[in-house]
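Sequence, please.
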C-alpha cells in the first residue's frame, strides 16, 4: 500500500468559485498565457476533476499591490498547510515578477506551521534583474509573522555541454495499480479518517513502484522509493504553470522516504514529521500532466532530521528536475 506524504501545513480557506475555475486562475506570471485562459474557459469538468480545479485555483494568487500577493487554501481537513502548496504559491509570486523567464532553482525554509483558516500573504523582494539571471526572495506571512521564506532564480536555457544520470529501471506506470485498485486493497480495520484520506480526490496521481504495506511495514528495506506522478487533469501549454504544479507535487512523498528503512509510516501516531526546508532544480522542459518518475532516496537520518533527495525523469529517461529536503522526524514520548 502507498500513501501520499506528510502535509507541512493546515487546511485553508473556502475556494472562490465552486465547480468552476475563475477566469484569472493559472497565472504564474503577471497572467498565464492566453492559451491557458482560453483552455480554462472551455474545459470545465471535461479535462479536470474537482481536485485538479482546486489546485489551479489555489495556485492563483490575488495581487494586492506591487510585489504583494495573497493566497488561499482548500479546506481538506488537515491541521497544517501542506508544504507543497506554500512552495508552489511562493513560486507563483516570484514568477509574476520575473518577466517571463522560467525558474531554474528554488530554495525554501519552513519557519512556522501554516494556518489553514486565514490567507497567506506573499511579499516578493526583487533582488536582481540581470542580463542572464533574475533573482527573487519571497516571504510568506500569516498573523504578522513569517512562516516561510524562499529564494528563487530564473534563467533562459543556453546551449552548452550536457550530461545526466540514468533513470532507474522500473516497472512502467500502466503495469502498476492505479489509485482505485490501491484503495480496494485497504484493510477493513484501518481508521475511518485514514480511509477517507486515501479515498479523497487528488490533483496528483501517484503510482508507487515499491508496493509497501504502510500498516504492517517491516524495517530493513533500503531507504528508497520510486513513484510515478502526474497531474490528474490536462494542463495548458504554459511552462510556468507546469513548474508550479511539479513544485507542489515534489513535496508529497519525499520526506516519507526517510521512514522506509525503519518500517515506519506517516500514519504512526508516535512520530512527528514536518518539512524544514525544500530545494528544487529545473533542468529540462517537461509536462506535469504526463508520467514522471520520482526516484527518491534518503542518505541520512540522524539527530531527528531526515535528509532526502529526488530525481525526476520523463518516460524516455530524461532528467528534468532534482529535489532535496530535510525534515523533522521526531519520536514522541509515550
Amino acid at each position: 500500500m502507498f500513501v501520499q506524504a506528510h502535509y507541512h501545513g493546515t487546511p485553508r480557506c473556502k475556494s472562490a468559485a465552486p465547480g468552476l475555475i475563475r477566469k484569472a486562475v493559472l497565472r504564474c506570471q503577471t497572467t498565464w498565457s492566453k492559451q491557458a485562459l482560453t483552455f480554462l474557459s472551455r474545459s470545465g469538468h471535461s479535462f479536470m476533476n474537482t481536485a485538479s480545479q482546486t489546485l489551479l485555483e489555489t495556485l492563483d494568487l490575488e495581487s494586492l499591490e506591487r510585489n504583494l500577493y495573497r493566497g488561499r487554501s482548500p479546506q481538506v481537513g488537515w491541521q497544517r498547510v501542506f508544504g507543497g502548496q506554500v512552495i508552489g504559491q511562493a513560486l507563483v509570486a516570484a514568477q509574476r515578477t520575473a518577466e517571463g523567464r522560467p525558474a531554474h532553482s528554488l530554495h525554501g525554509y519552513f519557519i512556522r506551521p501554516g494556518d489553514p483558516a486565514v490567507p497567506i500573504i506573499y511579499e516578493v523582494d526583487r533582488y536582481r534583474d540581470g542580463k542572464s539571471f533574475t533573482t527573487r526572495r519571497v516571504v510568506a506571512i500569516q498573523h504578522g509573522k513569517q512562516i516561510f521564506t524562499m529564494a528563487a532564480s530564473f534563467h533562459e536555457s543556453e546551449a552548452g555541454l550536457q550530461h545526466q544520470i540514468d533513470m532507474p529501471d522500473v516497472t512502467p506506470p500502466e503495469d502498476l495499480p492505479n489509485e482505485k485498485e490501491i484503495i480496494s486493497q485497504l484493510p477493513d480495520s484501518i481508521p475511518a479518517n485514514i480511509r477517507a484520506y486515501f479515498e479523497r480526490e487528488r490533483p496528483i496521481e501517484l503510482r508507487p513502484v515499491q508496493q509497501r504495506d504502510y500498516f504492517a511495514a517491516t524495517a530493513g528495506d533500503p531507504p528508497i522509493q520510486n513513484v510515478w506522478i502526474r497531474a490528474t487533469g490536462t494542463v495548458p501549454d504554459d511552462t510556468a504553470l507546469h513548474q508550479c504544479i511539479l513544485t507542489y507535487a515534489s513535496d508529497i512523498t519525499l520526506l516519507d522516504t526517510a521512514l522506509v528503512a525503519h518500517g515506519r509510516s506517516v500514519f504512526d501516531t508516535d512520530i512527528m514529521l514536518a518539512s524544514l526546508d525544500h530545494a528544487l532544480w529545473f533542468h529540462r522542459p517537461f509536462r506535469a500532466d504526463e508520467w514522471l518518475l520520482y526516484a527518491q532516496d534518503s542518505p541520512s537520518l540522524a539527530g531527528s532530521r531526515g535528509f532526502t533527495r529526488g530525481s525526476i525523469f520523463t518516460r524516455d529517461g530524461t532528467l528534468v528536475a532534482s529535489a532535496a529536503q530535510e525534515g523533522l522526524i521526531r519520536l514522541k514520548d509515550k
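The chain has a mean pLDDT of 84.
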